[in-house]
Amino acid sequence: MVHDLYQETILDHSKHPRNCHELAEANRKAEGYNPLCGDKLKLYLKVNGGVVEDASFVGSGCAISTASASLMTESLKGLKQEEALKLLDRFHDLLTTDSPVTQELGKLVVFCGVRDYPARVKCATLAWHTLKSALENQQEPVTTE
Amino acid sequence: MSALTADIAAGFDVDRIREDFPVLKQTIHGKPLVYLDSAATAQKPFAVIEAIRKFHEVDCANIHRGVHELSQRSTAAYEETRAKMKRFLNARSKTELIFVRGTTEAINLVASSWGRRNVREGDEIVISAMEHHSNIVPWQLLCESAGAKLRVIPMNDRGELILEEYARMLNPRTRMVAVAHVSNSLGTINPVKEIIAMAHRVGALALVDGAQAAPHLRVDVQALDADFYALSGHKMVGPTGIGILYGKSKLLNAMPPYQGGGDMIKSVTFEKTTYNDLPYKFEAGTPNIAGGIGLGAAVDYITHIGLDRIAAYEHELLVYATGALGQVPGLRMIGTAREKAAVLSFVIEGIHPHDIGTVLDRLGIAVRTGHHCAQPVMDRFGVPATTRASLAFYNTAREIDALAAGLRKVKEIFS
């Protein structure tokens, strides 16, 4: 019924989020907020020589936003900053366009069902908006509105 | 269930009423629509849809202007709604009823027009902890510009206002007390008559946000002694974009206009403009004529069924739904006031309201999820958001069963 949206991987990551903790060595941090549903997220990145060496998050949100943050932090590790931003663009395309699913998205393809639930796109992109803000070192909390 | 069904059969033919609402006869994702979001907007009966269609098809003209036949017809139909609203609210005169876009505009009108003339530095405005943002922000704006203080009546864990605290708050600097008749996020029915009387004892005025009350219980502005009463047409099976501000004549007469333009004037020269009489002083520009006419049909429809019967039936549904949802493991009701309208706001441990809302939607069940434009209420109960099922007289016990079954499905998926 709703399994196109809540695929097994998404349910798994929402119930058991990975990298869900603060990160003492983080040198980039950002906060994200979705005023529509009250979801809040703090993202921690350890960036060294232009490469994301570690990533983690804390926050409260729905299954989609929690799973998205969890899978995002997994995908980021080892990526160069520009690769991370490119992945953000691919991920955004996955959710908002009919573009074919590309290989580079890896596990993130589980979010392809979100495009059929327009009201939930912001849940899936909150972590990624926050990533952009962290990489650009913005001080103000980013919101999805 | 059986007792409820028997009561329905005896006094309230809900299946017949549902025939009047075309929108209800559809399937969503292959399931019959279960519409439980009437506190956001109520569905519209044929009578309202027809009245609007007839206006556009047969009577369409601007009002208060032409001498031609169509203009006279549209003016008569529009003004007839004012007369109907006078009876509906038991106002003294129809000149006390101002057409506005909705409750939000009604409150902004009072905060802006009455507020700027009467509120000074050091004065106080009292609202309550359960207000909708539309009965918070206009007063904040006023307080900021006037240097006045905004005070908030607290509530207990049931979601009931603590009147002892309110009594202590009142003082000779209190200018206005603005409270909801019925809370949109909790369902609490506030003792507004008592709240108004207490305000009057210290010389303050009282405004009641009636958006959630008007379609569900009988409102008598004279019995309440309300100074202002605001409501929205679309919450009471009328169209969007039309609402009513009731105000006592002597107050409205003393207030400056809210907006300037056509229809609100008697004469205009570049040196001096003379304003029109009530209610037109507050109705600048061509109004939502079709909406006004639709609202008239909505009032007729509700009056024909009878507000007392509506209130009694909805109360039975509320009791039934409270019992049914109470059986869902891990569900916590937010808002358990002893006097309550048919609003069920709840959280389920470990499951976010948006996930609940999405799964229910796939089952054809429409509920509201989020903060319901009442973020301070969410903060008070320590939750970021709730799921809200809000009922109307066209809902049935079967639909409550569908909701309860849907919530069990939600639990299955997420735990």
Topology:
The complex is a heterodimer of chains A (145) and B (415).
Chain A: H1 8-15, E1 28-34, E2 39-48, E3 51-60, H2 63-76, H3 81-96, H4 121-135, E4 142-143
Parallel strand pairs in A: 1-4
Antiparallel strand pairs in A: 1-2, 2-3
Chain B: H1 2-11, H2 14-18, E1 27-28, E2 31-32, E3 34-35, H3 46-59, H4 69-89, E4 97-100, H5 103-118, E5 124-128, H6 137-146, E6 149-153, H7 163-169, E7 174-180, H8 192-201, E8 205-209, H9 221-224, E9 228-232, E10 243-247, H10 249-254, E11 265-268, E12 273-275, H11 289-305, H12 307-326, E13 331-334, E14 343-348, H13 353-362, E15 365-366, E16 368-370, H14 375-381, E17 386-390, H15 397-414
Parallel strand pairs in B: 3-15, 5-6, 5-7, 7-8, 8-9
Antiparallel strand pairs in B: 1-2, 4-10, 9-10, 11-12, 13-14, 14-17, 16-17
Helix pairs in contact in B: 3-11, 4-11, 5-6, 12-15, 13-15
What would the average pLDDT of chain B be, to the nearest integer?
Answer: 95
CATH topology of chain A: Sufe protein. Chain: A
CATH class of the largest domain in chain B: Alpha Beta
Distance between the termini of chain A: 29 Å
Largest interface: A-B, 21 and 19 residues
Q: What fraction of the residues of chain B are assigned to beta strands by DSSP?
A: 15-25%
**Strand neighbour order, sheet with most strands of chain B:** 4-10-9-8-7-5-6
Give the helices and strands of chain A as they follow along the chain. HEEEHHHE
For the biggest sheet of chain B, the summary is: 7 strands, mixed
Kindly give the count of domains of chain B. Answer: 2
Task: Provide an overview of this structure.
The complex is a heterodimer of chains A (145) and B (415). Chain A is of the alpha+beta class. Chain A has one domain (8-135): Sufe protein. Chain: A (Alpha-Beta Complex). Chain A is 37% helix and 20% strand. In chain A, strands 3-2-1-4 form a four-stranded mixed sheet, with helices on one face. In chain A, helix 1 (8-15) crosses helix 2. The longest helix of chain B has 21 residues, at 69-89. Chain B has helices at residues 2-11, 14-18, 46-59, 69-89, 103-118, 137-146, 163-169, 192-201, 221-224, 249-254, 289-305, 307-326, 353-362, 375-381, 397-414, and strands at residues 27-28, 31-32, 34-35, 97-100, 124-128, 149-153, 174-180, 205-209, 228-232, 243-247, 265-268, 273-275, 331-334, 343-348, 365-366, 368-370, 386-390. Chain B is globular and about 70 Å long. Chain B has 15 helices and 17 strands. In chain B, helix 3 runs antiparallel to helix 11 (289-305), helix 5 (103-118) packs parallel to helix 6 and helix 12 runs parallel beside helix 15. Chain B folds into two domains: 2-32 and 306-414, Aspartate Aminotransferase, domain 1 (Alpha-Beta Complex); 49-304, Aspartate Aminotransferase, domain 2, CATH 3.40.640.10.
